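Recap from last week: sequence in, structure out.
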Amino acid sequence: MASQHMLGLRWGVEQRLEFVETRLFWEGFVNRSDLIDTFGISVQQASTDLNRYLALAPDNMIYDKSAKSYVRRETYAPKFFKPSADQFLAQLRSLAEGTLQPDHVWSMGTTPVEVATTPARGIDVMVLRDIITAVRAKDALEIEYQSMAKPEPLWRWIEPHAIGFDGFRWHVRAYCANDSMFKDFVISRIIAVGERRSASVCAQDDLDWQQTVTLTIGPHPKLTSGQKRIIELDYGMSRGVAEIQVKRAFLYYTLKRLGLDVDPSTRRPQDQQIVLLSMSPPLDGARTDD
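Predicted structure tokens:
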């Protein structure tokens, strides 16, 4: 990938050229109005940007008079961005869920999309702000928290150092002064926030957060050869295995999300699909969520 430093371009110019390239890759065409509508620039500036891009990457696009647009050539090779399926689909999902506005992305077009939604988590934005502030300032925070292990909410002091997402819920990773250990607290279960004070521990003390576990997975052995091949593609496996790096603190959530928290023999191979081949280092601790 070329950079603005290599090409001597200003950041704003490079952004617009990246936009041109992104549109060409995902939509197959781009025109002046696309640049004008997205960046609020003049017709003259839009024409200049397209001509500049054409000079830098003449093999990437050609003008189609009938379409009144530049269209992608078969020799297209990106210079300003790296196409990513993961990024595109993540943006598409965010659009479908309403957490991202259409004018904040460059390449969605009119692609119909639907996602399997889950109930929105009732996270108080002020509580979240206080947590983020405490994490950044390395402060302890007094919270009123409803644990599933207790019948009523309790006030406690926590020392948060990170937040994490388990695929369904947002957690704050923190040292709990009540239990004298690092735990995960579901943010939506924090009812209120009280006082702040300086923290007495640091993130490096949270060994389960600092340590990484490697999970090696493979297709269920009772699948057919064809089914195994498609599972290998689904999970990006090489030679029948894939490795997943996960923080030890989030191991429980990862195993649960992948369906690896149960004995694979209790489910049909077509439902289970993957099995855990190994875990390094092996698990010898307990779950620490609250």
